[in-house]
Amino acid sequence: MYVEFQLWKTEEEKHSKSLYVKECGEKNSGKVGKVEYYYCHRSGYYKSEGKGIRNLKMQGSAKINAHCTAGIKVFYNASNQIKIIYTKTHYGHECSLGYLPIPKQLRQQIASDLVKGISFDKILDGVRDSIGSSLDRSHLVTKKDLYNIEKSYNIRKIERHKDDAMSVHLWVQECIVERNNPILLYKPQGQRIAEVGVNQGLGEHDFVLALQTPIQKELSQKCGHKRIVCVDATHGTNSYDFLLLTVLVVDELGEGFPVAWCYSNKEDSTAITIFFQHLRDRVGNIEPEWFMSDDASQYYSGWCTVFGGSPKKLLCSWHVDRAWRNAVSRHINNKQLQIEVYHTLRVLFEERNCEQFQVLLNSALQQWQQDPELEYFYQYFVSEYTKRCSEWALSYRKKAGVNTNMYLESFHRVLKHCYQKSKVNKRMDKTIDLLLKYAKDKFFDRILKSEKGKNTSRIQSIFQRHTKSLTLSTDLVSSDENELNIWHVKSKKGGNIYEIQLEQQHCQHNCSIRCRTCNICIHQYSCSCMDSLLQATICKHIHLLVRFLNKQNNHENTALLLQAPNISSPLKILSYNSIDSMENNKKKMLHKLSEISQFILNSLDKNCLQLIDKNLTTCVSLTKLSNHTTNEPSNKKLVPQRRFYSTKRKRQGNNIRLSKPTECELNNIKQLLLEMPSISPEALGKYHIICYG
């Protein structure tokens, strides 16, 4: 009967997404027999065992800080019959998979696989491949869980043929007949394109393989419209020098998610346009507001040709800065002049007002045109950047939420170093399998975030900014005299004043990117600082403003607290209590010692005296050890060994590194450019440019 009850309990817990546990053993229940109590595992109060240094996990504790009404009462009589009283109704929480532990049966199965030497990655593949129409706790297993319970699974065969090209071809043929076909486009090497269609333009020796899984299709349709799309290619993923072209979108959690891939032996406009055409045929038209790629024009032109529209093109600021550094070093010989020109370029880049940017640009062009040493750099900058200021200047990319191509760079780094183990795969079938494995892991990562919650990098950065804001004083915040929903925050050094504006009182986007301490999201406030404009995040000034507003709202309560009885310091009270407790303990110990000494004088039990002597020897050792203790930390490093050192006099280099200017240097250069007399367009000659934003 007990086995049948356990089977019933397991099925009921799986069906109701709950877990019932015993807090004690069985009890006697008079005439009825014995009784067992099973409580909801979320019932009870959370007791922190740490020091509060680390931030609590996103989903919080499983305990609800209350008592849940659900439970099972099991009665056992003398004839081994079982009577059950089952209360299904839960109180104070919803039944969620994120708070359930891994089932015992699954833990045993994974442990058995670990004994056989199966890897962690293969275990995750096996568990996640079993997902069907319904989701259960086993599908939320992570690699950290595998480390805790040490489990693994059988390796799935990847190579379908000893010839790599034939193996890929056989895999493509298998995928084509499947319901969830991930193949967007396939053009094998050594095959001519006979028909005239969208694949026209690919040669006999060209190789193209485009992939998109069902979840990628869904996310491209959901997160591609009115947001940002990033496109870039990377090399080094295979031994055939095939490039991996990636189309990536930013999801609602502020994280990048690749929505399509294309392996190709070239990245010209023909291959890119064909790839975009097949992508449009599957997902429909995508109309992003921003489009980020590198300096190559074929990505943006191919996108506009296929999908239409004219999204705002952005260049990666890191690549632009690197190009400027190289150009300054290449076209300018004077080292001091290199620093001045580079600092002027940073002033142009970081200017936040479009109209003032035009004034600064014209002044800088005038200054460079009149200097003979800057002739070549002047021509380079005018021909390469003045016609497309809207692609690199900060004043034209406000609230884009992206400044560098960090999402794609992060994906490339994870793929190459985590999945490919920093190695170049010699076979394409293994490379493709790793790519699809990454897509599957990203999909389950989204499930984990929705079910269990997760402190993403975007939320962690907001928490770090909140911590930095705690070092700032609320005296730096002041309200605007004319506008009700505008505040001004002075910088800590007093150089700048930032303006914060209330965009909306309550978020209308059901946003997940928020500060839980301040209870605000990224859409409610906007600041004029660089951090807020570039990253579209909650900067430290906004955190400081919320603390300032809360301080105003709680002013009366604070005044009441200040009128409390005069207590010098709560720490002193704690120290006094601890001292009193120690004195009491000492008195008790001395009393015990007096009893022991009296017993030794009067006792004749040899065995008992030997035992007392052994324990007293241990106590004496402890006293000697205590007398030799120091205040040095336990992890203090040892004294370093003596090392040889070089006596050769090194020649001092005269290379001056181009470092970014300080805030004071930026303000000085900006003031000098603004004080320059204006120049007419005719004076700039053929290089005068009007920037379009």
Describe this structure in words.
The structure is a single chain. This protein has 693 residues and is α+β, with helices and mostly antiparallel strands. The chain has five domains: 2-99, no CATH class; 104-149, no CATH class; 164-315 and 405-451, 2-Layer Sandwich (Nucleotidyltransferase, domain 5); 317-402; 457-558, no CATH class. The chain contains 23 helices and 18 strands. The strands form four sheets. A seven-stranded mixed beta sheet has the order 6-7-10-9-8-11-12, with helices on both faces. A hairpin with a 6-residue loop joins strand 13 and strand 14 (486-490). The longest helix is centred in the last third of the chain and has 33 residues, at 570-602. The protein is globular, with a radius of gyration of 34 Å. Residues 151-156, 558-579 and 684-693 have low confidence and may be disordered.
